[in-house]
Specification:
heterodimer, A: about 270 residues, alpha/beta, Rossmann fold, 2 domains, 6-stranded mixed sheet, 3-stranded antiparallel sheet, 8 helices, about 35% helix, globular, B: about 350 residues, mainly alpha, MetI-like fold, about 0% strand
């Protein structure tokens, strides 16, 4: 096994059962995933299939009912490097901290000196294009800008893997397209391992090296598609015929699961 | 035909004509009422009619105010109305409609306020403000002790100190217990029934008990009563503030490595602080109510005492003056706390430019 192909994330047979007043809800059933170092994996599934639950288990926010998952640090990682950081759908940046302090938050918690963490934060604020807003509070920012802060906070903390839980879902379509381009550009600079949850096939194909499909609830592995397009990519990719073809192939596979979800809702 | 209050093209009357008619109406109505001598027996009716006509004039007038001037216009209304009200009061008393014994005219109340602020009660050795003009003289004669003595004779200062000591002595434990109850489910389950049961007791009713425990002399029992009233309000709000933190903030903080004290200092406390301040504002209002009530019945000093004293000696103008002092005290305390809020919560400053002044009932 070479370093380039080193497994970064291994999740095996993850099952999550939530107790509820009307019995048990099986959110996730035997889901498995392996992610290589430096790979950008997108997980797509119908709503309510447990993809966010998987991410929360991976992030350690939730224990699995059974199964196991691990994130392996690189052998050359400095001690104290965090295993994972999450970019939440609802941004989850702190309203009581300025943009600068939000971005530096992880570093501050790790005890990085003030000078150093503010330098790193300034650099990431620059990379997400918020230099003029570094001393603003989140309520003064738009949705897209808040998500930039959230993304910068995750990158600035330099974790082994980045976990993104539908980070662009709350944005309007145009802002989302811009942010997809930005995300590609930012990611290109250090090619971190990413697990990216989304309900948009297009977004998954545009961003990911691999698209993993999940079934309707209880969520488990449906199919996996390698995305062959070369990097660096940008939004021009979305205009090509190959892009559309791959999109449709994935949609065909996903369709039955989406219909199942809709039927389950109507029942 | 549909009835509409909006100005439609071709509607019956333009607003300026309405204004002219209403102003004429005001003149005719007041003239007739005065000539016929109806004011004395029907003054409530007369005031109501005047009020309605003035509102109509101002409402119609607002349609002529350019949009960018509207906020200025509204500010004029907000400041102008109290002035009109005071003027009406003055006129009603001077015209012999209101009894000046129970409703001394504002000019008389202002005079009483001035007397109250400048006079010295030789018998009780007290004054309202502690005669600040004597500070340089007393300092040169007796040093700081002299200045302290001046403060000590001030009713306002005495009340302020009672509120402040009680407020601080009650808020800090209230904050600690409230945050603990918000944090720990176990503590909450244990304490909640007791706190809820004690919270509903009107706080002034514990005064006799406090007099029993802390002797009915001196300041201790007064301050403790104020402290207990503040304690519960602060506690309940602090608990709610901690409990209502969005779980996502806690999750995000943990995911970014915050634990224990860090989590508390960087996330729990700032997230709960708006609710905590709402509690502190309520507590301050409650403290003012309680201390005035205590001073009514048990004190020989304080703004509550002077208000009560001038009722006993039947000097209504000074009673009103005492009320004004209490009112100013309440306003100053509330705004002081709000200014403090702006310092503690800079992230709320630009968002909440308009804040409602919390005035607790009592």
């Amino acid at each position: 096994m070479t370093i380039a192909n080193a497994k970064k994330i291994v999740a095996e047979g993850l099952t999550k059962i939530f107790p509820s007043p009307r019995g048990q809800v099986v959110a996730l059933k035997g889901f498995s995933l392996e992610v290589e170092d430096g790979e950008f994996v997108c997980i797509v599934g119908p709503s309510g299939c447990g993809k966010s639950t998987f991410l929360r288990i991976l992030a350690g926010l939730e224990p699995p009912t059974c199964g196991r998952c691990s994130i392996f640090p690189s052998p050359d990682s400095p001690p104290g490097k965090p295993l994972n950081n999450v970019v939440f759908q609802e941004y989850a940046i702190f309203p009581w901290k300025t943009v600068r302090d939000n971005v530096a938050f992880g570093l501050q918690m790790r005890g990085v000196s003030k000078k150093e963490r503010l330098e790193i934060a300034s650099e990431w604020i620059r990379r997400v294009g918020l230099t003029d807003f570094a001393d603003c509070y989140p309520h003064e920012l738009s949705g897209g800008m808040k998500q930039r802060v959230s993304i910068a906070r995750a990158f600035a903390n330099d974790p082994e893997v980045l976990l993104m839980d539908e980070p662009l879902a709350a944005l309007d379509a145009q802002t989302r397209a811009v942010m997809q381009g930005e995300l590609l550009r930012i990611w290109e600079s250090d090619r971190k391992t990413v697990v990216y949850i989304t309900h948009s096939i297009e977004e998954a194909v545009l961003l990911g090296d691999r698209v993993v499909l999940m079934t309707a609830r209880p969520g488990t592995n449906k199919a996996s598609f390698r995305v062959p397009f070369s990097r660096p990519r940008d939004l021009r990719l979305t205009g090509t015929a190959e892009f559309a073809q791959l999109n449709y192939r994935i949609w065909e596979a996903l369709q039955t699961e989406v219909l199942k979800t809709m039927e389950a809702r109507l029942a | 035909m549909s009835k509409s209050f909006s100005r439609k093209p071709g509607s019956a009357r333009p607003a300026w004509l309405n204004i002219v008619l209403a102003v004429l109406g005001l003149a005719v109505f007041n003239g007739a009422f005065s000539l016929l001598g109806l004011w004395k027996s029907n003054w409530i009716l007369a005031i109501s009619v005047n009020f309605v006509l003035i509102v109509l004039v101002l409402e119609w007038l607002s349609s002529y105010i350019p949009v960018r001037r509207l906020s200025a216009y509204e500010r004029i209304l907000a400041f102008g109305f109290p002035v009109i009200m005071l003027a009406a009061w003055e006129l009603l008393v001077r015209g012999g409609v209101l009894n000046p014994t129970w409703f001394p005219p504002p000019s008389r109340v202002m005079k009483a306020l001035w007397e109250l602020a400048t006079e010295y009660d030789r018998f009780n050795k007290t004054s309202l403000l502690g005669r600040p003009w004597l500070i340089p003289q007393m300092y040169s004669q007796q040093g700081w002790a002299g200045v302290k003595a001046l403060f000590g004779e001030s009713h306002l200062w005495v009340t302020l100190m009672r509120i402040f000591s009680g407020f601080v002595a009650g808020s800090i434990p209230g904050l600690i217990v409230g945050v603990a109850m918000g944090y720990s489910r176990t503590i909450r389950c244990m304490l909640d029934p007791v706190i809820s049961a004690l919270y509903v007791i009107p706080k002034i009713t514990i005064l006799p008990l406090m007099m029993l425990i802390f002797t009915p002399f001196g300041e201790t029992y007064k301050i403790v009563t104020v402290a207990i009233s503040a304690f519960f309000v602060v506690l309940i709000n602090a608990m709610a503030g901690v409990r209502e933190i969005e779980p996502i903030y806690i999750e995000a903080a943990r995911n970014y490595g915050a634990t224990g004290v860090q989590l508390f200092r960087h996330v729990v406390l700032p997230a709960a602080v708006p609710m905590i301040f709402a509690g502190l504002r309520l507590a301050l209002g409650t403290a003012l109510i309680v201390i005035v009530a205590i001073e009514f019945v048990r004190a020989k000093s304080g703004v509550g005492y002077i208000t009560w004293y001038y009722w006993e000696v039947l000097n209504p103008p000074k009673m009103y003056a005492g009320l004004i002092v209490i009112m100013i005290l309440g306003i100053v305390l509330t705004y002081g706390l709000m200014a403090f809020e702006g310092v503690v919560m800079p992230w709320r400053r630009r968002r909440e430019q308009r804040q409602v002044l919390d005035v607790p009932e009592g």
